[in-house]
Request: fold
Amino acid sequence: MRFAVIYPLIALFIFFRLIWPAFKEKRSRAILCALVIPGALFPAVVRFVGGSMVAPDLPHAVMIAGGVLQNITFCVFVLTLFREAVSVPARIFGLPLGALGKSRMLACAIVALGTVAALYGTRQAVDVLVVKKVDVEVDALDPRLEGLTIAQISDLHVSSAFRKERMERIVREVNAQNPDMIAITGDFVDGEVKDRAGDLAPLKDLRAPLGVWGCEGNHEHYVDYDGWRRFLPSLGVKMLYNAHAVVEKNGASIVVAGLVDPMGGLRFGRELPNSAKAFEGAPQDVLRVLLLHQPKFAPRVAGKADLILSGHTHGAQIFVLDPIVEKLNQGFVKGLYNLSDGVKLYVSPGTDVWNGFLLRIGTAGEITLLTLKRAQTH
Reply:
């Protein structure tokens, strides 16, 4: 609902700060408004015609086309803000750069560059998929687990924007890495089981000798929560709700644990994360891997695990949002972090993104292959 309000406000800003000062002819203003307004109204179309922002019931092509239009509005807005950051102070101090706000050529360049950025960013979000290989040093790692590989995928956001074909491609890429274990760190889907079960079904083809493990994300709580809790295990995904399991490789034990997402308790009165419950009865002095969707909670449970895997942030999606996402997530955006006492945290930038913001610039959908190594002592 918020996007349905925010984007029209963005369009008004573009009109009064970019279009109105630089273009006097009604025809020019109308043409530029026709480029900006459809994207500003698309979130409202999704909300009121498609069913909801979280789980729209619109054709795939409509979602992608609407995402492009929405991204044009957003990118033009960001570039206009950048121009304002230069021209307004210049005008205050009487510098000649203050005329930038009325430059027709600059306004055209902003619209053109914003359109190109939107097209590029949409393709990055809905099509590009990379495999990133990361070595993770773990203190006192059992020598028998040297070289253990974990494939992490996160934030699949299966929806009308990300359908079965995308999931099939992700599954093929994950299996091609031949991981020992697969971890899915939340936000599997946006929608009801009856609508999205077929699109998520390819997950049943994931293969790893130590299993496919998952934790819930905040989006699981928004639509058909009980239905997904029943359905996900049917795909072979072993979901961990404040729980753990023990697996073995080469005779060495590994504890795999997962926490529920706090959104369930804070907004819907469901169970809250409980690390004590998750690790109750788990063996000590063995490798412990914890799946936790939102990384900002990782420091609170760092003493419970050697390696924490998270998602949620989508890597900020575009570089200009890094400071905001960093602030909202206790400094975590994407990549490998060192927490206290040698605990490692890997924050996936997401394998996909939420259908309401199909834009990536500076990031890409990621499958992460984590290889565990014994930390070197100095």
The chain has two domains: 2-126, 129-374. The longest helix spans residues 60-92. The radius of gyration is 23 Å.
